[in-house]
Specification:
Helix content: 40-55%
Distance between the termini: 53 Å
Structural class: alpha/beta
Number of strands: 10
Radius of gyration: 31 Å
CATH architecture of one domain: 3-Layer(aba) Sandwich
CATH topology of one domain: Rossmann fold
CATH class of one domain: Alpha Beta
Number of helices: 10
Bound molecules: adenosine-5'-triphosphate, magnesium ion
Largest sheet: 6 strands, mixed
Order of helices and strands: HHHEEEHEEHEHHHEHEHEE
Length: 316
């Protein structure tokens, strides 16, 4: 009421009205207060509602960003079928920024299918896939290039541009991203040196050996410094020395925070990197995962591990 009295004192129009209608001053103030009450109430309700809504949104955003912090990749109950054949069956997996994962398993287990899903070269049919902040379930065709700026892939059936030089093949990946020429030169040279290709830089990519072409494909993928690097049998055509060198390069990228997934049949490579996570697929199912807290499905004759849980927790 005191506020109304104050308002009354400072509003000349009200004073005039009071003079015209000879009502006692506090009675007029009361009438004015009653008339003003609903709109004031509504305004304060609106303000409170807006503030509550903002608080709610903020809490949700904080919760979500907390949940996603450090999460680079998440698959929840993912299945994929080619016609009537299920290449992936109910796979769940969570990887953090900077994880290194070996994806292994027999031929036809679903490794390439899984990588293709992560790269959006296959659509999500069942389950949920999140990669580098992109929800692949709702990803639009026009957003695919944005995803592929963050996710690089070395395909099993790698392809190089045969009529371009090794340097040009690798530089192209940076040029299409608008990287300045001096930076392109520096980065391409550094990556080619790391892969032992500095002497073949000016050779036409079609004229070099299969192993060298494979390294060109790897160089093209790593030179863009992606958040996620997917490599499908990257050592398939390489001798043991080069395989080790390539893995060291992947490890270097991984040390800088790139999440790396390497699909491989090579037990030697896996054993050489004991710190890496290992996931085995068999007939489309995750049958083994080596990190603490991961649920490990073993072959029926193998003993089930203790504290078995899924490699990725999914929203219920
Ligand atoms: N385009 C396709 N059409 C039909 N079936 C397919 C297709 N691609 C893959 N498959 C099938 O899906 C299953 C998984 O294939 P995928 O290529 O993912 O296996 P993989 O583990 O990568 O095998 P590999 O080690 O031989 O590369 C296989 O049975 C395969 O025959
Ligand atoms: Mg494959």
């Amino acid at each position: 009421m005191a506020a109304i009295e104050r308002l009354w004192r400072i509003l000349p129009g009200c004073r005039g009205a009071s003079a015209f209608f000879p009502l006692p001053q506090n009675m007029f103030a009361r009438l004015l207060a009653r008339a003003a009450l609903p709109s004031a109430f509504l305004a304060s309700f609106r303000r409170a509602g807006r503030a509550a809504l903002l608080r709610l949104i903020w809490r949700k955003v904080k919760k979500l960003s907390g949940k996603l912090a450090g999460k680079m990749l998440k698959l929840c109950h993912v299945s994929y079928n080619f016609g009537s054949h299920w290449a992936l069956k109910d796979c769940s997996l969570t990887l953090n920024k900077g994880d290194f994962l070996f994806l292994s398993g027999p031929s036809g287990a679903g490794k390439t299918t899984l990588l293709r899903l992560l790269y959006a070269s296959l659509p999500v049919q069942r389950g949920q896939v999140l990669v580098a902040g992109f929800n692949l379930n709702t990803l639009k065709a026009r957003e695919v290039p944005l995803l592929r700026r963050q996710v690089s892939v070395v395909f099993q059936d790698f392809k190089v541009l045969p009529h371009r030089t090794v340097f040009e093949n690798v530089a192209l990946a940076l040029e299409v991203r608008g990287v300045p020429a001096p930076v392109v030169r520096r980065r391409v040279r550094a990556v080619l040196r790391g892969l032992g290709l500095e002497k073949r830089m000016d050779a036409k990519a079609g004229s070099i050996s299969g192993g060298e072409q494979q390294r060109v494909a790897v160089a093209r993928s790593v030179v863009v410094n992606p958040q996620v690097l997917l490599a499908d049998e990257p050592t398939g055509n390489l001798d043991p020395d080069l395989s080790v060198r390539l893995m060291d390069l992947f490890m270097q990228f991984n040390a800088y925070g790139t999440t790396v997934i390497v699909a491989t049949h090579s037990h030697t490579l896996i054993k050489r990197n004991p710190a890496a996570k290992v996931l085995l697929l068999d007939e489309g199912k995750i049958t083994y995962a080596n990190w603490p807290g991961a649920r490990i499905f073993r072959a029926p004759d193998a003993p089930a591990p203790e504290n078995a849980r899924m490699p990725g927790r999914c929203p219920s």
